[in-house]
Structures are given as C-alpha cells and as structure tokens.
Amino acid sequence: MTAPKTFKNAKALLDYAKKVRESRKIRKREIRVCGGPGCVAGGSRKIYEEIGQEIDAHAAELKAAGLELDVTLVKKCTGCHGMCEAGPIVTVEPDSIFYAHTKPGDAKKIVEETLVKGELVEDLLYRLCDRKGGDRAHTYHDIPFYALQQRIALRNVGTIDPTDFDDFIAAGGLEGFTKALAMKPEEVIEEVEKSGLRGRGGAGFPAGRKWKSAVRVKKDRVWIICNGDEGDPGAFMDRTIMDSDPYSVIEGMLIGAYALGATEGYIYVRHEYPLAVKHLTMAIERLTAIGLLGDNILGSGMSFRLKISRGGGAFVCGESSALMRSLEGKVGEPRAKYVRSVEKGLNDEPTVLNNVETWVCVPAIMNKGADWFSSIGTPTSKGTKVFSLVGKVRHTGLVEVPMGRTLREIIYNVGGGILNDRPFKAVQTGGPSGGCLPADKLDLSVDFDTLTRAGAMMGSGGMVVMDDRTCMVDVAKYFTKFLIDESCGKCVPCREGLRQTYELLDKITRGEGEMEDLDKIEKLCHTMEVASLCGLGKSAPYPVTSTLQYFRDEYIAHIKDKKCEAGVCKPLIHYEINKNCIGCKLCKKRCPTEAISGENKKLHVIDQDKCITCGICYDVCPVDTVDIISGGEVVNNRLEPTGKAKLAATKA
Amino acid sequence: MVRLTIDGRSIDTEPGKTILEVARENGIEIPSLCYHPGLESFGACRLCVVEITKPGWDGWKKLVTSCLFPVEEDLIVDTRSEEVLENRKVVLDLLLARVPDSDVIRQLAAQHGIHDTTYTKRENADTCIMCGICVRVCDAIGCSAIATLSRGPDKYVDVPNKDACIGCLACAMSCPTEAIPFTEVGGKRIIWDKEFDLVQCTATGEYIGTQEQIDHFAKKSGLDKSYFEKSDMARKKETAAAFARVQFK
Q: Of A107, A443, B62, B229, which residue is most buried, by most CB within 10 angstroms?
C-alpha cells in the first residue's frame, strides 16, 4: 500500500488503516522469522534469506497451492518472540505453527513441507519436555510458555515487522492516539489515572498522578522523556519493545504529549542497543514524513517533536535525575530530589519521565479503556508486567503475565521449572539491587507491594532463578561488585559503603569471616538504605539484606564451619577422589596443574598442594567419584546418579 | 513566613531556605563537608542528614539531607536523634577508612566518638573525600579546568582541561581536607602540574597571583585590571590615603 503523503486528519488515517487491513484479507500464509538479537546470533537472518530463495525456487508449486509471494504469501522478519532459549524461531500463520531451534538449511523443509504441502515439519516442532521422544507442540498455543501469557506491552512484539508502518497500522496502531485526540487532554489524563497504570521502571509510581502533577505546575513548557536506558543485567524487556515495536512506544508518547501539552520529547536509549536506535530512528523519520510528528499533527493543531539521545553506558543514568543531567550534557550523576522532576526536571522545567514499558501500555489503555486495563491484575497493581526470566530455569525469555501471578506460576508453569530438575533455591527479582527470595516465598503474588514487603522488589522486571548449586553469600558478593562498578561515586554511603560491604563479604567467602562482621554489614546496609542520595544507593543493599534475612544459616556456615554448602566459594572447598574411582585417567589427563596421580585402573589421588580447585576433574569424571569437600563434609549437590555413574554406585 | 521547629526550638524564617541554612543562622550546628555557602548544594557527604516529621505524619519520621531540604510550615526537625547520630557515625567511619590520614576527618570522627575506623583502610590513601567542592568552585569561577573522573570508589579529581586552569588556587583553598597540593617558590606557583609566573603588586611588590587569574577576574567582573594588580595591603593604604584627604565636618 502506498500511504498518502501526509494524513490531514484522524479520519484519513483510520481510512488508510482500514484499507490496509482489507488488502491483507487475501493473505493465506504469513511466515515470520524472529529478528531478535538472540535468534539473529543463531543465524535467523540467513534463514530468512534462505526462505526467500526457497520461495522463489518453488514459485510454480506455491502458485499451484494458491500462494503468491507478497500477495497471498508474506514473509517477514519480526521482533523477538520471547522464547530465546528455543531460537532461532520461525512461525507460520494463520496456523500458529511454531518451529524452534531452526538452522540455516531448514528453509527448504519449511517451504516444501509446510507451505507447498501444508504439512508440519515434525523435527522442527518444539519439544515439550527435555526427554528424547517427548511430545512436540503443534502450535505455540500448546506451549505453556506462551499459553499462560497475556500480552499488552508485548502485543505487537514478534508479530509485526518493526520497520513496516503498514504492519503496525494493520495491528491497530495509532487507534489509541486518534481516540485520545477526540478527547480533552484532561480526560486523557483522567483515563490513564483511572486505569491504575503504575510506572514499569522500578518504583511503580502511578503514571496518571505523575501526569496530573506536571499539568498542575503552570509553566510554558513541559518535557516528556522515555527512559530506555535499561541497565539491569539479564533484563531485556525494554530493548525488545523498542526493537520490535518502536511505533507503539512513540504512539504512547504522542498520547502523553497531547495530554500534557508537551511539544518536545526525548527517547533516551542505551548506547548498547543499536537495533533499538535504528528502528526508533526509522519510525521517527516515517512518522515525521507523514505528519504524525511535527506541527499540526492530524489537523489537531498539536505540535510534537521527538529526538533520540544515546546514553553513554552508565547504569546510574537509568535513574531519572541522572538521565536528565546526561540529557543536559552534564555528567550523569543523580541530583537529590526534594523538588520533583514534574516541577523541575530537564533544564529545570516540568518533566514527565516514564519507562518504555509504561509508555507502550498507554495506547492500549486508550484503545480498550481504563476499565479493561484495571480489570487485570491486583487491587493495587493493575495490568500486566513483562519479566525477563533468566538463570537456572528451563524456558528462559520474555514473559508477560497479569500482575498477581505467583512466583511459582511464573517459574514452574511459564518457565517450565528448574533446569535439569534441580531443587529451587532462590529467585532474585528486580535487577541487581533486587532481593533474593527463598522457596517458601514462591507463592507470593508478584505485584509492586507484595514484593517490596518481602524485601525484594518489582524493579524493572528482572527475574533470576537460582538452583541449589548457587551460594547465596557469593550471589550477594557478585551483585555488590556489580553495583560498586556502576555506582556514580557521588555520595559517601553508596560509594564507600558498597566497597566496605564487598570487603566484608569477600572476607566471609574466604573463610576469614567473624560473626561480628554480620552486624557490621547490617549496619552499613541500613545507612546505605536510609542515607544514600539516589535510588541506586538506597536499593543497593537489598541483595545483601535479603540473603541475610532468608539465608542467614549459609552465612553462619561460612563463618563458623568454614563450609560453603553449594560448593562454590573456592577458598572453602577442596576436591577428593573417592574409593569408587575406576582409574580411567581422564581427570589426570585434563588436570591443568598435573595435581592428579594414579595408575591405570587404580584409585587416583589429588595432590592438594598443587590443586587450584578449578573443578575440571569434578566435571569430567564419568562415574562421579570426585567429591567436593567443604567444612569437612561432602557437598557435591549431585542429582540421582544416572548412566555409568549409577552402575558404579550400585557396584560399590 | 514559615514557622518550623528545630531541636525543640520554634523558628520563624523565610520560605526557600534550606534546613541547614536556617539551623546555622540560629546557632544550631549541623556538621557538613560538601556544603559551601557560595555554591549550589550537592548532597554528597550525607553528614548533614537530619530527621524530619510533621504533626500529621502519625509519628512517621524520615532522614533528609538538610543542605537540600527546603523549610516547610510545621516541619519538626531533629538534628541529633539516635537515627541521625548513628548514620552520621557510619558515614564518618567510612570516611575515616577512606582518608585515615586526614586531620580534619580524624577530629570530626573523634567528636562523634570514633577514634579508629571499623572498616578496611584504603591503601595509598590521599586526603580527598570526593566532596566535589573544588570541581564546583572551578565551574563557578568559569574555568571548568578540573573534573571528577571515573566512577564509584575509583572516582578521582583530575585536570582534564589543563589549558583552562588559571592557577587561582580556588580549588585548593576551598578544599575542606587540604587534599590539593600546590607550591609557591621564587615567584612561581605550581598547581595541577602547571607552572605559573606570579605577578607582583604594583605598589608593595608582594606576590598577588597569576597573570591568567588577574585577566580572568577582570574580564568576569568588568572591573579594571589595575584593581586586581594590587595586593590587599596596597588597597588598604590607598583607602587610608583617600580618607586622609577627606575634610570631615
């Protein structure tokens, strides 16, 4: 479809959208290849090209089957499908066929079997359980990972081509904006407030209330900002939305601009997100060209200009006041805010800053109404939330579920449980400064308030699952180190407090800890929490305080018994080969320091003076006879033995 | 007019001031390190934290930074509550670990009952506490020669824009812990590894400053250069001479 040069009014836009949808009714097949970074790394671009070539090669057969490229058959490269663990992913619509783990070379099978003959390629279908011969899912509706999700923020992610405006508009794009334009600005704000939408960036501040207070400050200019400086390790929900559905983010900001009377806005994107920058830039150019950004948008008299600013790679710039300093061209350090940014933000003018996921929810609220949105979720946390489910969980990826689901539902039902069926130990929610919750908190409802009460937080939606081979003191140390590297270094509690907390934790993992160190850590954490300048410092102690609260015994075992139950803290463990050794010499060959001696088919021995506890022998032993010893006990954390190891164990 | 209570005293003051300003005006001492009356508040040292509450808050209290928090009607401020003192102690303890050789920090810590740090002392420590006054002063003067570099515990002050340095010593003179070294020997001043020739007073011959400094201040202030080319002593003498010429009735 060729779009008109500019859309003079909302009706022209809606008419065009209708025409696009009409023209697509004759589509019989749509083949979607995931263009998310995970799948691209797995070769999805190549697969996409090959599918094109195969379609050309089979043009005659396809035509006989009633499929003609670009008319009745469409191939497109979409954004991330979410289930990165199963990538590269190819889906075929309208049958919802889901091909997982595809490789370059599979295109032929997909085109010949599925497109020409209309049959499934059995061995590319997703296997529902790890075991060989397990059932395979025929469509993605059969996969719990997808079936249990409710997608609002991710509504277009993985289904549309992010670079195609027509695709966006056919999926109902800009309908929310045209609805907003038909309302008075204050009614739009009222609607957002009524929906109960809370900021998805971490703090969960009600978006409508923020907008309202910005309007109340009478000033000539209001800025609006989209915070796309997602920095949490393992979190990629904002990136995915910007990569895969850039138009919807901008639509959210257009609605915000209309409601707030803003004429200028920024999208602050992390430097490490080149695809997001590319797609957003394309979207801004396109929308400017057709008169949806700029002056007199859709004949409404409204003007709005949008710029992209790339962050320099500092985690702290995700903090709103630091982000604004960075936008002003100053050093990205937070500013103490007793004056809120809705009063004095960017350039000391009223500023409304919301996170990517928050902005992207706004068009959906306009489109379907506040009542619909607020009917989802819990009484205080409305709507859905996107989580990036990572760590020791079977199905890693992006999931969007209604607020109020339990941790157990997300980890076990959506995520498919713990990898290799190991026991669950903890889940960290809310990014690097989130808290770690133990197994008895698995039935907590996942919403802003419940998680905060439990000593964790919603944060931006990171969810790191840990199994029994994770040492919680080590986890606390790891996140503290991350935060040391990312602290801006402005205020004393965060800069010095984190460094000292790390020293104390390190001392404990070296087996040199004393019980009074725990009191010292707790005191430091308290000061960091109450006396730090910004949110980073205030929440920095959570990984430590939450592990101290729920896994205190582990700290004590490290201090008193010099024992690391998980077998992780190197200074506290050593390896020994037990009497079941079959003398295969594998460990001896692989040991990098030649610490293992023993003759063929005789018991091998590790020379503890030479051993550097690298653990290679433990990993390579075919019969699991290398033991991890800590605190005088075996702490192997092995699952039930299988295969050769089982045989050796029964023999012994 | 705003009426608030600080440490049990009812105080009337103008709106727009911070708790720290009002407390100090009324003789209530709150310790601080990064606060400088001539600069915008920074809120980095966290030493000036105080506890606030309000009649309607149902006894709920919170810690705020007094150098930044604007006074409000009915505000009840406690500058020495147990929570305030505990956190001040931790902050001083942390600073003492950072700069174990700084007399200023040692004395301040001792006043709060800390004679040795509980934490691991920094190795090869200088006496910089990263209060940022030097950098902010340099910005305020209009030079922006020095800046903080790196971040987190590795953050330090250096001179990335050496050309802009006018050798005025404002950074060194306003540093609370005397962490910025400089030398003045034989008509030469060295600071930030940059050497300056010192200008002598046209009247008394005393060394008064660098040529760059005189030029910069004359330009910024709009005053005649000759004003800056005289030492304080020379200016006093001029004033005395002027007064001697006046015929008092």
A: A107
The answer to whether A447 and A381 are in contact (CB under 8 A) is yes
Residue closest to A282 by CA, chosen among A162, A159, A172: A162
Question: Which amino acid is residue A107, in one-letter code?
Answer: A
pLDDT band, residue A2 (cuts 50/70/90): low
Contact B151 A532 (CB under 8 A): no
- Contact list in B for residue A491 (CB cut-off 8 A) is 43-46
Task: Give chain B positions within 8 Å (CB) of A489.
Answer: 130, 148, 150-155
The β-bridge relationship of strands A573-577 and B62-65 is: unpaired
pLDDT at A646 over 70: no
* pTM confidence score: 0.88
Q: HEC states along A376-392?
A: CECCCCECEEEEEEEEC
A336–B65 C-beta distance less than 8 A:
yes
Percent share of chain A, pLDDT over 70: 96
Strand partners, A436: A428
Q: In a 10 Å sphere around its CB, with 0-12 CB exposed, 13-18 middle and 19+ buried, how is residue B23 labelled?
A: buried
What's the token pair of residue A24? 């697509």
Looking at residue A5, its pLDDT comes to: 76
Contacts of A469 (CB under 8 A, 6+ apart): A422, A566, A567, A568, A637
Instruction: Yes or no: say if A241 and A201 are a contact pair by the CB < 8 Å rule.
Output: no
Q: What is the pLDDT of residue A63?
A: 86
Alpha helices in A182-245 (DSSP H): 185-195, 207-216, 237-244
Would you say the ipTM is above 0.90? yes
3-state secondary structure of A27: coil
- Alpha carbon distance B82, B59 (integer Å): 15
Q: Which residue has the higher pLDDT, B238 or B91?
A: B91
Alpha carbon distance B69, B200 (integer Å): 45
State how far Cα B70 lies from the chain centre. 20
Give the Cα-Cα-Cα angle A411, A415, A421 (nearest 5 degrees). 80
**Is pLDDT above 60 for A652?**
no
Record the tokens describing residue A17, joined without a space: 């959208």
B153 vs A531: CB contact, 8 Å cut-off? no
